[in-house]
């Protein structure tokens, strides 16, 4: 017997692909939100009055205008420790971004592979479905021909029976032919 024309495996593959895309979307959204939050909180940190109490004091001698708060960029240029810390943070952020890019590429590659597999499976099932349709159409044509031949055979049988009755044949006179 031929293969069954079912789609369980295709549905499972499609749902897995959808789940992977959904997870990638959620993780990406979370990462963007965290990055935006960090950027906003770090860019606004020097403006808040409590920033001076929560941050370590700047050890540099920054030229601060009266009525202005010192900005971290002012100290960064003259303080070597601050420069090292910022470079270290930047390198950590670059590593994290590189890692996220790598993870995203791998996830994309797995998703593309799953999509290709689902396309191939879909094409195979479509071919099987086309074969099934052709077989069903052929069977229907044969059935219709057989039905037409049966109607014709019954018509001929009635005609011969009518002729036989004209010549004296009755249902009681069945002749058995030995062979």
TrEMBL record:
Organism placement in taxonomy: Eukaryota, Viridiplantae, Streptophyta, Embryophyta, Tracheophyta
Keyword set, alphabetical order: Coiled coil
Keyword Coiled coil assigned: yes
Protein name in UniProt: Uncharacterized protein LOC116215064
InterPro entries for this protein: DUF1068 (IPR010471)
Family annotation (Pfam families): DUF1068
PANTHER family for this protein: DUF1068 DOMAIN-CONTAINING PROTEIN (PTHR32254:SF6), EXPRESSED PROTEIN (PTHR32254)
Coiled coil: 136-163
């Amino acid at each position: 017997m031929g293969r069954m024309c079912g789609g369980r495996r295709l549905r499972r593959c499609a749902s897995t692909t959808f789940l992977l895309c959904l997870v990638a979307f959620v993780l990406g959204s979370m990462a963007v939100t965290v990055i935006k939050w960090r950027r906003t909180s770090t860019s606004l940190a020097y403006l808040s009055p409590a920033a001076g109490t929560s941050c370590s004091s700047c050890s540099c001698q920054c030229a601060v205008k009266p009525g202005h708060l010192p900005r971290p960029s002012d100290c960064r240029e003259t303080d070597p420790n601050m420069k090292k810390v910022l470079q270290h943070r930047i390198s950590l952020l670059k590593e994290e971004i590189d890692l996220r890019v790598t993870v995203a590429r791998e996830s994309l590659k797995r998703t593309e592979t799953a999509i290709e597999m689902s396309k191939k499976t879909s094409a195979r099932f479509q071919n099987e479905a086309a074969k099934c349709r052709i077989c069903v159409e052929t069977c229907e044509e044969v059935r219709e021909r057989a039905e037409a031949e049966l109607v014709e055979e019954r018509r001929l049988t009635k005609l011969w029976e009518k002729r036989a009755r004209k010549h004296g044949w009755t249902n009681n006179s069945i002749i058995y032919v030995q062979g």
